[in-house]
Design goal:
Elements: H1 24-32, H2 43-62, H3 92-124, H4 132-148, H5 154-161, H6 170-182, H7 185-195, H8 198-201, E1 211-217, H9 224-227, E2 234-236, E3 242-243, E4 253-257, E5 264-277, E6 282-296, E7 325-333, H10 348-351, H11 356-363, E8 372-378, H12 382-392, H13 409-413
Parallel strand pairs: 3-8
Antiparallel strand pairs: 1-2, 1-4, 5-6, 5-7, 7-8
Helix pairs in contact: 3-4, 5-6
Length: 418
């Protein structure tokens, strides 16, 4: 049989030192820990030690209880920066891989320095002696090497993964964009846009170039007593989900992650694609929100200008008796990235029947050139009646399916028996 040997109490707990921490702290705590008492300690010294500790405890309790009587000190807050998951020498394969990564990064940095010197020498030449095509190719190569020199460093990848990316550096812009494009966020957005037929119902093609996120208030509690007493937090909206009209009564909180360093102008618009049109027995669009000339860059995580100075935000109000409505939020780049455009404010009458294709052709918007997009769905509830009464201040329409013609109506009106 195997005999189990109990470890001494001062042995460090290796199992608790995991994740983003090092084993060096455990080894230091082991070296600084007090040694176990020798067996030659007499009863008198033990008793004196007990009395001394008792006096110290009493003194600590009388001074306001600042000392921890339980013997366990509070854990320090863990740093958010990267550190080795294991100590040196624990896993030779990990140490070799880390050395190989650092060595490869050093080689690329040397090549980068040489290429930068060549670019500087080429720029110093007179215009008639230098080749602009060659110079542009060298600059592109410099940008590639700047990313490759740091793309595999563990601390860089840790910062990009855990929200510590510095968007001033090209490596972090590359990693954040790569994560957005390849790990499902962009795929989910495009799946919902094509699945809900936003393309081609609204625009023929759309190619988002940055991550656009919106936050609305959480759904209200079902209990009427808690509905007016609970403060609801903002919650990020997943593309394509259903929201209730109570959540969207106020304009959303918009945030984005862009990947270009220069400041460019964008136009924000929000459209409902499923407004019923009784005259044509079909559907039309409604413009809920419009704000042009919004300057954005990789260093702005949210719009820096007010978003209610143009066509004000009107909350979604899906009509009673209609199926779910699709609400699309677009942030499209303007034709000139620096020159503002002059778009007239849409009146309440002009909102209904908004034709985005004609609007885009007039002002030069094109979904192929990039931008940001988001969408969600809503259906009617009692809040819509309140929006019609207090916000829109007009009578609420009601829609429904037309009754089917009864083919036996004439027979039912005639007598069954002669």
């Amino acid at each position: 049989m195997l005999a189990l040997r109990r470890l001494p109490r001062f042995t460090p707990r290796i199992a608790s030192v995991r994740g983003n921490a090092t084993l060096e702290a455990a080894s230091q705590s082991q070296s600084t820990a007090a040694p176990p008492p020798s067996p030659s300690v007499t009863a008198k010294s033990s008793a004196s030690h007990k009395s001394t500790s008792g006096n110290a405890d009493a003194k600590g309790s009388s001074s306001g209880g600042k000392q921890n009587s339980g013997g366990r000190q509070p854990a320090q807050q863990a740093t958010r920066g990267w550190c080795r998951p294991i100590a040196k020498g624990v896993e030779p394969a990990y140490d070799y891989a880390l050395r190989y990564i650092l060595k490869d990064a050093g080689f690329i940095r040397k090549e980068l320095e040489q290429l930068r010197a060549a670019v500087a020498a080429e720029e110093k030449k007179p215009e008639d002696q230098r080749s602009e095509a060659t110079l542009e190719e060298m600059r592109q190569r410099v940008g590639i090497l700047e990313i490759q020199s740091e793309a595999n460093l563990p601390n860089v990848r840790w910062n990009a993964r855990n929200g510590l990316a510095d968007m001033n550096q090209p490596i972090y812009r590359h990693l954040v964009e790569q994560r957005w494009r390849e790990e499902g966020d962009l795929d989910l957005l495009m799946e919902r846009i094509y699945q809900m037929s936003v393309v081609p119902d609204m625009l023929p093609e759309l190619r988002p170039s940055f991550d656009l996120r919106i936050k609305y208030a959480e759904p209200p509690p079902k209990d009427n007593y808690l509905r007016t007493r609970v403060k609801r937090k903002l919650k990020q909206v997943e593309p394509g989900i259903f929201l209730v009209p109570e959540q969207t009564r106020r304009q959303p909180e918009i945030s984005m992650t862009l990947f270009h360093t220069d400041t460019r102008l964008y136009t924000l618009l929000m459209v409902d694609l499923d407004i019923p049109d009784p005259e044509t027995q079909s559907f039309t669009s409604y413009l809920h929100w419009l704000q042009p000339n919004i300057p954005l860059s990789a260093f702005t995580t949210s719009p820096t200008v007010p978003l209610d100075t143009h066509t004000r935000y009107v909350p979604p109000h899906p009509q009673r008796g209609t199926p779910y409505h699709r609400y699309v939020l677009l942030m499209l780049p303007q034709t000139s990235p620096t020159e503002p455009i002059d778009i007239p404010v849409f009146s309440e009458a002009d909102r209904l029947g908004f034709n985005f294709r004609a609007f885009a052709e007039q002002y030069g918007f094109n979904g192929v050139r990039g931008g940001g997009a988001h969408m969600w769905r809503e259906v009617w509830d009692e809040t819509v009646s309140h929006i019609y009464q207090h916000t829109l201040k007009k009578e609420e329409p009601r829609f429904g399916k037309l009754p089917r013609a009864d083919p036996y109506a004439e027979i039912k009106r005639s007598k069954k028996y002669l």
